[in-house]
Write a structure and sequence with these properties.
The protein is α/β, with parallel strands linked by helices and 390 residues long. It is 28% helix and 21% strand. The protein has eight helices and 15 strands.
Length: 390
Amino acid sequence: MKMTRKLSSSGPWPTIFSHLILSSVFAILYTSVANASAIPPPTGPYHVGVRKYTVPHRNTHDPVAPNNVSTAFLATVFYPTLHKPQGPPKPYLNPETAAVFEQSWNYTPGTLASLTSTVQQDAPFLEPSEGNKWPYPTLLFGPGAGGPPIEGNTILLSELASYGYAIIGLDHPFEQPFIRFPNGTGVTGVTIDYSSLSLINAIYATRLVDNNAFLNYLPHLVDKYNLPFNTTRIGAFGYSLGGAAALGSLQVDSRIISGLDLDGTLFGPPGLNSSAADVRKPAMLLGNQDHGGEYGGDYSWATFPLWQTGYMRKFLVNGTTHHDFCDDTFWKTLEPGADPAAGSIQGVEQVRILNAYVKAFFDLTLLGRNSPILDRPSEEFPEVVYYDMS
């Protein structure tokens, strides 16, 4: 395995887009930072809606639920719409969620609670043309263990939805710091002991159970609510433990075509240094600069690519830490230095990197649209280290 990195000598501008278009995108993103009141808006051709659904599922071996029994989890769906946002913008985080991360990640109270987005609650669906099936794939997303929950990953998920994808994020009650079900019921999570490997393994196993249960439930959900979603072309990805679970589910579930892990240590068979790690399908790792490097870091990220017989890509991003693979990479721009665990990379640039590389992977593996950033170092994104898997 060879690691290559190419620094741009002519600046980070791509050659396939005009300077005018890129300047407009940068202006939108940097305006969000300057205003300190809105997260970066999606850049795709569609507006974005969001809806939430309760997924009934009885689990009698739930490691975080009271008496180890849970009966449902929460599905949050981001989807494209032609409906333009109307009225004043609304906060995009539940106030309870905002308060948790303002305290735990050292932000001034109110910093996150005041953030708004252009994502529209219960907006009309974008209907496929008459007589045609929904052309865009469906993506399953899992958050990190203990958060942020799905709402704290809105920037990336809404970006993908603005290009036509339907993204379904799964929050498990009691594991996330706070979630609110569609009927208004709020559930506060337990304190997770991250030093307990047995607990983390149990949570990981629960994630695999949830992913399988949801895919079993998806056709019913589509029929019940007349959702215009694709149920045959499905990808999976996630942040932290959610990324590990995406690859774990990819390996064992024939309904999932490809999977991507955002900075998550691998568990189960994919975490082994043996042929048992082979998921036999397209997979990608995108993580922080110390995650699975040649010297130190996460050993599972060093070994996993070596055993893959299917399409495999691995990228590390210089200047990033674990917190830079969720919405915190933008939150840190509002109060620089508040979160000491965030990386030095400019938050708006990391947003661009996440948006570009995740979309490129699923465009290729689910739609057959190739992107050069997956095959070589990119002058547009000099912070990204490309690992040659040949």
